[in-house]
Description:
Oligomer: single chain
Structural class: mainly alpha
Strand content: under 5%
Radius of gyration: 45 Å
Amino acid sequence: xxxxxxxxxxxxxxxxxxxxxxxxxxxxxxxxxxxxxxxxxxxxxxxxxxxxxxxxxxxxxxxxxxxxxxxxxxxxxxxxxxxxxxxxxxxxxxxxxxxxxxxxxxxxxxxxxxxxxxxxxxxxxxxxxxxxxxxxxxxxxxxxxxxxxxxxxxxxxxxxxxxxxxxxxxxxxxxxxxxxxxxxxxxxxxxxxxxxxxxxxxxxxxxxxxxxxxxxxxxxxxxxxxxxxxxxxxxxxxxxxxxxxxxxxxxxxxxxxxxxxxxxxxxxxxxxxxxxxxxxxxxxxxxxxxxxxxxxxxxxxxxxxxxxxxxxxxxxxxxxxxxxxxxxxxxxxxxxxxxxxxxxxxxxxxxxxxxxxxxxxxxxxxxxxxxxxxxxxxxxxxxxxxxxxxxxxxxxxxxxxxxxxxxxxxxxxxxxxxxxxxxxxxxxxxxxxxxxxxxxxxxxxxxxxxxxxxxxxxxxxxxxxxxxxxxxxxxxxxxxxxxxxxxxxxxxxxxxxxxxxxxxxxxxxxxxxxxxxxxxxxxxxxxxxxxxxxxxxxxxxxxxxxxxxxxxxxxxxxxxxxxxxxxxxxxxxxxxxxxxxxxxxxxxxxxxxxxxxxxxxxxxxxxxxxxxxxxxxxxxxxxxxxxxxxxxxxxxxxxxxxxxxxxxxxxxxxxxxxxxxxxxxxxxxxxxxxxxxxxxxxxxxxxxxxxxxxxxxxxxxxxxxxxxxxxxxxxxxxxxxxxxxxxxxxxxxxxxxxxxxxxxxxxxxxxxxxxxxxxxxxxxxxxxxxxxxxxxxxxxxxxxxxxxxxxxxxxxxxxxxxxxxxxxxxxxxxxxxxxxxxxxxxxxxxxxxxxxxxxxxxxxxxxxxxxxxxxxxxxxxxxxxxxxxxxxxxxxxxxxxxxxxxxxxxxxxxxxxxxxxxxxxxxxxxxxxxxxxxxxxxxxxxxxxxxxxxxxxxxxxxxxxxxxxxxxxxxxxxxxxxxxxxxxxxxxxxxxxxxxxxxxxxxxxxxxxxxxxxxxxxxxxxxxxxxxxxxxxxxxxxxxxxxxxxxxxxxxxxxxxxxxxxxxxxxxxxxxxxxxxxxxxxxxxxxxxxxxxxxxxxxxxxxxxxxxxxxxxxxxxxxxxxxxxxxxxxxxxxxxxxxxxxxxxxxxxxxxxxxxxxxxxxxxxxxxxxxxxxxxxxxxxxxxxxxxxxxxxxxxxxxxxxxxxxxxxxxxxxxxxxxxxxxxxxxxxxxxxxxxxxxxxxxx
Length: 1228
């Protein structure tokens, strides 16, 4: 290839160019460069090659533009055909394609580039310029070929850098291409090329209209991330400021538009660009930046509506405020900020004060560099005065900024502030701000002081003031306590400070013992050099820890908890364990608190050490045999069995069986466990030891006997029970004590089910049948007697249900049953039969006392009277409520277990019930509802779904009744009881809505939704409306927030009776009774009253006040209805069904002559549901429009009948609202 090119180069320039295009550009590049560099300046080719190059380039471009009519010189004569081909048919050659010309131009451009870079300058730039200009002028034609574009752009770039003649003629196409390329490819090298060539942009006339495309490209550079990230990009954008005043305004406008949405790095880049641009300008352009842009930023940062927007503006201004030492910057900032800041610091709007304060702190001290010293001092005093004033501002957010800003100023400008001013500001910070009512202010005070310590000049003053912060270690906010300990850790490393002079050591130890881990661990880090120093020998370090434990046992134990995490060696920790163990064995002078602290410390240390295999065997030897028995005796003296159990379960020493009886006693003596957190921790420790020692089956058997005993006490005959009670001399207390122990066991059952290990052990136990049978009986007792015995609890019922469900799921999992029928067959039949009995009830009975002769309550009452006669001088173990429960001799439980839950619900609303028993009943019913819905979700007893719905309906009705009775002071709940009640209410609402979701998800034409779904949907709305009516909007608002996610299911529940019915007559008949009326639920009446109230308010002149007033009537329920309207408007089919229900209710209202109800409902349908629908959308509402044909004549008839009555105006209002709909329904 090179030989052929060399030969052609020796012939002529034209021959050389023709030969070069026969090869690919990549393969020929090296050869071309080698051959062209051999050409000498004296050679004829130095003049002929540029001329030929220009000719060939022009010819290829002409062919490229118009292949059919190229304006080119005639081509040289073709060669004679070979002898072998003379007799063949001669065919015309096809014209070269555009691809061929692009290929040729690539080689020509590369040759031009090699000629331009010739090391001996063999080619004159003037000779090469025509060819290069031809390529540049047609640059836009080659946008499809990146290789050719790169060659041409490299030529133009080289021409500009070398300052060859005519370079200004090679930028009009090249520079826009280069900018566009940098924006498209997003490569740093292209941005660098644009920046290097930035001086060339000054040749453009930016006032000319033809420059608009280039201006748009340059404006795009302002928001391009690559330009903002790179130094060259920011330099180029800053350079654009000086090209044109109009371009400057457009660039500044683009920057301003990006401020609200820009990230921190982007905004800081804009600040740097603005400063560089301002610095390089003068005259009108600089004035535009100062007075036009910076002034607007100052005002925007002051009067911004949000703190985030103001912060974004200040980040842009940071380009100037961070360069205040640059000549001229401080004067500009003072001139622009002084009129705005000082006025804004004293306005009534706290947001403006806060924003202005941020600006002042960024520019402090704000001063005019050209003013006198006296003027500067006066201005500084003014600023300090305003800062002191803002430290006492009414707005906490302003005080937060002020205290942090003052601390920053004291650190950075300590030298220029008078000492009296420093003392005054510091006194405010330490005495007032540290006691501020706002948590954020107190936290900011500590953060500011921590920052201020960074200036050594502040230390002398801080030594005096820091002890005033001692109270903050006991602050109620965790983050403040953490910040206070961080402050102590900081001064610990500063010479001259002692942390124990800031906070007393006893206070630190109390905090260490009782505070959360985040605080406790930092205090351990603080005390570690004093109580477990690494520089001393291990024996001395252990002695110091023992001293700490003796001083504060719980603090010492907590100290040991974090030793490993703070870097103490495992070897030293092992020595500490031996020292503590020996102290427990040898000392008889330890009191209970010390023993408890030491055992707790040992527990923490053993957990850390057992993770290292080298310490496991030594630990086992240390706690095996007689030593373990001695530890057990000692732990009982300090009530530290829980810690000992944890140690044994962690270490697994030999002879752990000695603790079996102790563990059994702890888990068996569990009365009051559910409310005792310390006892719960002890029981959990016993559980861990039981599982680790494989005692679970024995302990589970003992617990099952206790449960069985409780069940037998109820199930036994009255005579046998009476003899047993006389023999044991327990009387009526016997069953109560046994029941309360069972409550503790139920808590343990649920706790054990929460852990996978203990759950497996429980479900595999051979005593599980006894436990579940006993729990079933005790659950029946709890249900039957919850309204007559105040000590009955829902936890037993809940435990029974959870355990039953777990058993069912376990069996399903083990047998790997996937078939639906098999899943039902393996469900716990006793549980489902129980649910059947619970839910198989018919309606609510009248409220009142139900006497059924319950033998248990009767025997308890008789036995209590006998014991009271014998032991009249002994105080009764019952409270007043319990006395009345037992002495009445009556029970409100029904005679048959089949109806116990429903009749329980009947009695919940009875005026003879008491709040504690009522709350117990609600809890039990809530637990049953939760369980049944969970079971329904697993498809374990779908055949009971109607009974579940009946139970849910009865539950909701009684919750409404309880709310009503509470409102009328028939039942006065205490505050904690009221919280529990509303917690049950929220839970029950969620599960009732979930039940609707489950049923509606499985609804089809073959399996329609039960009729009871409609009732539950209405009752859920009734519940929210009633809660707001009887308990207030705050409680209702919480329910509305909860109901938002379930609202689609509630709406579908309202339309469930009509979802699969296609005719209007079927839908109407599904909602009316035998008398032709529909049951009007309370939520419909309340909705109507809201509409009437809004209609009354709308007659006033002030529309906004009316709207606010209208929203004050049932605001939470109104919000819920608003969400329901939005949902209905999205689905015409559901809107048609639900809207029909409202109109059916209107018919019932007309029959009852309740015209107010009708007017409210019609107004709601007309103005809320159907107002924004056009004619096309109304055509989709077939049933509403059809039923309107029946409703409208009824309204007209009522108007004739009530012509002279009080309801006439309401009827006329109804007719007026229905007229547009009536006319449209007649048209279709």
